Amino acid sequence: MRASRRGLLALLSACALAAGAHAGVIEYLYVEPNVDGSAGGHAAVRFSDWVYDFQNADLDTLRLRRTPYQYFRYVYSVLENRTIHVARIDVSDDTQEALRGRFNDRYLIQSKHFAVQQALRNDRELLRLLIEPQSPSAEAALRDRPDGLGFRGAGFFYGGDGTARFEQSAAMRRLRERVEAQYGEAFIPRRLHELEQAVAALTPTTNGTGPPSVSKDERPTSGYHFSDRYVDLCLKILALRALSDALPLRDDARLAPADGGFALIAPKQRKLRDFAVDLESGLAELVSSKRPDWGFTLLLGMARLQAIHESLRSGRLVLLDGFPAESLVIPASDAQRDDPFLIELFEWARRDFSESLSHFFETKEPHERDFARLEDAGNRYLEIQRGLSEGRAIRLHADQLIPSQAAVGLALPLPELDPAALRRAESAAAARERIHAKRMRDVFGYHLVTHNCVSEIFATIDAELGRVESERQLGGYVRSEGSLNFVPRLSYRAVVKAYEPAEVGEVSSYRRSQLEAMYARENDLKVYLRESNTLSSTIYRRNGRDSFFLFFTKDALPARPLFGALNVVAGAGEMALGVLRAPLDRGRTLWSGFKGVMFSLPELAFVNLRKGTLEYGPSDPPRTEFRAASGNREARLQ
Amino acid sequence: MIARTIAVLIGGVALCFSAGCGVFKSSTTQASVESSSHSSAAAFRSSSSPFRWSSNSSSPSDESSSAYQRDVTDYTAKFAASEGDPQPFQRDLSAIAEGHGVTDWEQDEVTYLAIGRGLAKAGLSEQRFQDFAAQLSNDSQLALVKSGYETYGTP
Lengths: 638, 155
Fold this sequence. Notes:
The complex is a heterodimer of chains A (about 650) and B (about 160). Chain A is α+β, with helices and mostly antiparallel strands. In chain A, about 55% of the residues lie in helices and about 10% in strands. Chain A has a seven-stranded antiparallel β-sheet. The relative contact order of chain A is 0.13. The longest helix of chain B has 21 residues. Helices cover about 65% and strands about 0% of the residues of chain B. Chain B is mostly helical and about 160 residues long. The interface between A and B is large, with 119 and 83 residues.
């Protein structure tokens, strides 16, 4: 019995090992074309929950983007109404990790190169402001650049005119006493004096040092920029001043909702109190940190500490306002008309907030990232809730929300530099910025054929594996240079042919998914007649993003030229109307009609590009999902 | 003839509308659309990913911790492979950490474990590892870095 159990265990282990040899999966995703900037289709690579793809970005470059798969699927297959073709390639864990690592490295490194470009611009702008004595004040002008030299976090304590509230915060007094007990009573004034001296002694680079080189696989060796040093020193000064004066958190920097979901029962209050104790302890250590940029972290931590103490006093969760000034804004009109998409967004936000609350309060020792998740989810939930209930504009922001209000009119020290040195430095900074931008374009520049969303994927795979290892580990090699594989559709065929995927399939477009459900429960002819055109379709609603067209031609291959001709006529009609409207809408309708005609022309030759986009796709989530293909793999693309 | 017509039509459309690969809206480029308003769906499309999308397998804590750890490991490996001043590295680390909701990364043990793993991934010599780690950490943090270094490669 024991022997047979051992045998079974050995067998299971062998199976596990065998499975482990091919436990990894990589998916190549080809997204069918649609109108505007996606007429050629799109391509991406998926590793587990994350998708990497290349998108057009600043400086005419292609930028590697990393997004959650479910978001990618929702945007492309539902809102963009485009079918995603999927080739699943079985690989070893090592191969999957190596390729994921290469894509992730390039993602992080490219982000750093863009940050360097921004820092070079900040250097030049800071020097320009220091040169111009007529400039109102360097710091006020700098603050107006949300993506540049803003003094993030100062707005928690300082208002629009640089002044702070008069009274003191008890939480801040306690933190100050703790710092004084730990480092001595003279610590804060001494550090402030040292920091102010450091600002005065700051010198920009004038020795002709060129900008850092740009490479896809090497992080920039750019050092620590003049503007970065200045901002870091100023933020430390502002944070220590706020601590020294025990400044209270400004009312407009925080959210104190009356919503029942924010009520704190006793166990939650205990958890929050414990978190505040840990936070205070961490902040006391932060003031002596060796990291150069602790100023913002201290400002944010002190603001959070006060928000938490207010939460404990009031019995309701108080959060910092996390939306940055540059957030996207959904207009109040959408909120006032109960836009169904917004209502669904609100449901997601509510669910996310509820999960974040449970997660934070059920975690034994929550970290800052757990609190940040709660803060992020609470902000998004409140923003949509208030927008819908009060009919006001709603802010939306990509990425993690990190509260970071800036302030103006702050009395900050300036570097003591003579005008001639400043002018030389500014000239050198402008040259560095210009050269670096050119290098960025040289390395990351977009080109329709040689550097597009497809070619960069294969270039990245090639950089990691090379031809021989690609053939060994992926089962084949896809050549991007000197072939037509730069076309997304053809690249998918090349992948299916070369890598011999374990499975191919698709995530059907929203319209197609809905049509299939309709065909299954209604009369085919009735569904076809109703849904084939934009006038009677119940799936599609005309929106401001699409130019006017009459017929969907994706599922009408035999009739495509005829429908295309009618779409050309419809587009021409919109153009004619556009000519009349041009003085009123600055040619918007005319341009829309022109695009309508242009995207209908390929239909005359049996080629479909336009699918129609959606503002919202009513249905049960997930609306679209992966289905394995049956039969000939390549036939699925016909 | 037909093939040429198709190619010309598609090529014409592509060139007319610059058939790119979508438009990336990073946090920096978002600044350029400040004060412009978008329909809800358009804003959603442009915002990269404004909501948390649950993963298939992990708890939220594991998910955020492992994503953070992976980024710090990957970046440390790249940084450590070349000579570098620790201050820019610390600033880079701050930028990466903020993306995961961490600003006080010195208080997060995952940071130091990930740095250790990154140093191992870079294949640093023992001496270079000691030098690099000492620049970044105090005694207790150094223990975590060593732990990450020694356990790199184990599941």
